[in-house]
Amino acid sequence: MKKSSLTILGCHSSIPTNKFHPTSQVLEMKGFFFLIDCGEGTQVQLRKAKIKFNKIIHIFISHLHGDHFFGLIGLLSTFHLLGREKSVSIYAPKGLKEIIDVHFKWSYTKLKYCIDHIELSSKKLEKIMENEKIEIFSIPLKHRIYANGFLFREKPSNRKLNIKEIKKIPDIQIGDYPNLKLGKDFKTNNGRVIPNFQLTFDPPKILSYAFCSDTSFYLPIIEYIKYVDLLYHESTFLKTEENRAMKTGHSTANQAAYIAKRAKVKKLLLGHYSNRFPNIKEFEKEAKEIFFNVEASEPLKTYYL
Amino acid sequence: MKKSSLTILGCHSSIPTNKFHPTSQVLEMKGFFFLIDCGEGTQVQLRKAKIKFNKIIHIFISHLHGDHFFGLIGLLSTFHLLGREKSVSIYAPKGLKEIIDVHFKWSYTKLKYCIDHIELSSKKLEKIMENEKIEIFSIPLKHRIYANGFLFREKPSNRKLNIKEIKKIPDIQIGDYPNLKLGKDFKTNNGRVIPNFQLTFDPPKILSYAFCSDTSFYLPIIEYIKYVDLLYHESTFLKTEENRAMKTGHSTANQAAYIAKRAKVKKLLLGHYSNRFPNIKEFEKEAKEIFFNVEASEPLKTYYL
User: Fold this and answer.
1) Is A193 in the same domain as A144?
2) Cα–Cα distance for residue pair B70/B74, rounded to 1 Å
3) Half-sphere exposure of residue A286: CA atoms within 13 angstroms, side-chain side
4) What are the pLDDT digits (tens) for A228-241?
5) Chain mean position to CA A104
6) What's the pLDDT band for B187 if we cut at 50, 70, 90?
7) A297/A70 Cα distance (integer angstroms)
8) How far apart are CA B130 and CA B154, in angstroms?
9) B276–chain A Cβ distance below 8 A for any pair
10) Among A153, A205, A294, B184, which is disulfide-ready with B179 (CB 3.0 to 4.6 Å)?
11) Cβ-proximal residues to B255 (8 Å cutoff; 6+ apart), any chain
12) What are the start-end ranges of the H helices in chain B?
């Protein structure tokens, strides 16, 4: 199993240009590929990142401003043209289903695959999906329209067998393995108890990722994203434009760093840069004054959790 | 006044990739910039072609398949973000207004500029717009859903004054110029009639452009596009796939050339290539067997009428 990672497809705000791609990213976690936001041009960025369309089953849309979903209808249409049969689940605020439906109504398209729409409306942390390996939560954000972030968390996996040590105890049969993986001690035929930690290794650390964009500087999210391994927090502006950030429902790099520090996250990724700042390293520099482990995200770069 | 020209932004069909851009083009005629179709990524292609967004007032959408309009909502949204105040007129089949409205409803966007929607539904040639310099008609096409092409035609302009010859006739006053421009002969004070052609030059030739995509091989269009200076006719396939073309409502290069020949157009541009053909020169080669003055259109190239 590959280590969980985040591939940035686009990390700029509002207007797409040849160099600036609006928000979109793919989280690979426990073998799942989660597409988060889908600005115009996402399908071309996916190709450049060599991520196979068919791996994407779950799509998360933070809010209905165009720079976060104008590429979605094109991607869904391409799925259809490529003969996709696997269904897609879309987690998004109310309205997206209507937008998608009206497109396919007027092109008289009957999709070859099924779309499951999960409408998000919660104003507090809410578990929106769970399977055997992962839990996903929506995070309430504060923006000009209803918006939420997402928290992705691996579930604890079983302990790993230490085959070398196990072989030394002839009483242990293959049928005992499941209990060992669950952490149980082993009792030999003559009553000796062998502690589990002598027979198994720790499972891999549980990793988590939080996506928070678009949002004002909003302290309530801190409790939801505590200790995540990677936090992507928007930083549309630098602190010189704090007023503009507040007025438009966005954050500065400084504020993103403050959130990261207070939430004690392992690493902070910045993004959703306004096009008015040509050098994104300025965001990193500003955030570093407050929180050391920070990076200004770049398109087509992969970050490991 | 610059000579009328057509700049191709995209000329491939269906799925956008890094190299293949879906249909979009800008016709510059008599100082107007007409955007014809608007596949995903059009706004980025416009930037690459260095066409200023603000010059575009009229947008023409042939039909509601995604590769012809999925870039429109992004472009309209960008107009808004850039503070546009000039209104936009959109000529498109029924449905597009609903699609646009639903986007802005859910993003709670109140556009800073006005959109005039002109709904196209005619099944015969119809004049859809006219101003002092240009006439525009919709051309009925034959496709899987309602689709139309467009015919753009310059209006005749006035004759140009031959100042050198005029100066030789002292009787001619500035007040006589308008009549000379309209082609009237001049009568001197002593009754001599000087024929207009001795005092003026011919006006520039009236130019015309026809856009026909997407369409099956459809003979009725011939009468509408007769003698145009430039015809863009789709050629999604080569003749080896004539059956597929027929089934999907498209044409082959061969068929496009046949239409061009029968309509006696001056030049034929091919486009809307299926991605399955990596070498677009094959389309040109096939069409040349029937019609000599043909070119396979390429993105970001400008063709003069």
Assistant:
1) no
2) 8
3) 23
4) 999 999 999 999 99
5) 28
6) very high
7) 21
8) 10
9) no
10) B184
11) B217, B235, B239, B242, B245
12) 42-48, 72-81, 96-106, 163-166, 177-181, 242-248, 253-262, 281-288
Nearest CA among A14, A88, A19, A48 for reference residue A279: A19
B267-271 vs B294-296, strand pairing mode? parallel
Asked if A16 and B44 count as a contact pair (C-beta separation under 8 A), the reply is: yes
Reference A7, options A153, A68, A29; nearest CA is A29
ipTM higher than the 0.85 cut: no
Letter for the amino acid at A217? F
Backbone φ, ψ for residue A8 (5° rounding):
-85, 125
Buried b (16+ CB within 10 A) or exposed e, A135-156: ebbbbbbebbebbbbbbbbbee
Same domain, yes or no: A15 and A64: yes
For B172, the domain range is 160-201
Q: Are strands A32-38 and A24-29 parallel, antiparallel or unpaired?
A: antiparallel
Q: In the structure encoding, which two tokens stand for residue B240, read together?
A: 């080896």
Q: Is the pLDDT of residue A10 over 80?
A: yes
Question: If pLDDT is split at 50, 70 and 90, which confidence band does B14 have?
Answer: confident
Q: What is the pLDDT of residue B3?
A: 84
Q: Report the distance separating Cα B255 and Cα B262, nearest Å.
A: 11
Q: Which of A9, A13, A15, A144 to probe by mutation at the B interface, max B CB count within 10 Å?
A: A15
| Domain count across chain A | 2
Find the angle CA(B227)-CA(B231)-CA(B232) to the nearest 5 degrees.
170
- H helix or E strand, kind and range, residue A260: helix A253-262
A82 at B interface, C-beta within 8 A: yes
- Residue B242 bridge partners (DSSP): none
Do A225 and A273 fall within a single domain?
yes
Residue count (chain A) = 305
Residues B275, B12: Cα–Cα separation, whole Å: 7
Quick one: B187 and B137 in the same domain?
Answer: no
For residue A121, the distance in angstroms to the closest alpha carbon of chain B comes to 14
User: What Cα–Cα distance (Å) separates residue A218 from each residue in A140, A152, A258?
Assistant: 10, 20, 10
Residues B131 and B276 in one domain: yes
Mean predicted confidence (pLDDT) in B208-212: 98
- B241 & B277 share domain: yes
Among candidates B17, B40, B98 on the partner chain, residue whose Cβ is nearest the Cβ of A102: B98
Q: In this structure, are A133 and A170 located in the same domain? A: no
The reply to whether B31 touches chain A by the CB within 8 Å rule is no
Strand partners, A230: A209, A267
CATH number for the domain harbouring residue A135: 3.60.15.10
Please compute the mean of the pLDDT values over residues B86-90 and round it to a whole number: 93
Tokens at residue A293, please?
A: 């482990």
| A16/B103 CB distance under 8 A | no
The answer, as to whether pTM is greater than 0.80, is yes
For chain A, report the end-to-end CA distance as a whole number of angstroms. Answer: 14
Closest by Cβ to B102, choosing from A16, A78, A99: A99
Q: Alpha-carbon distance B146 to B125, whole Å?
A: 14
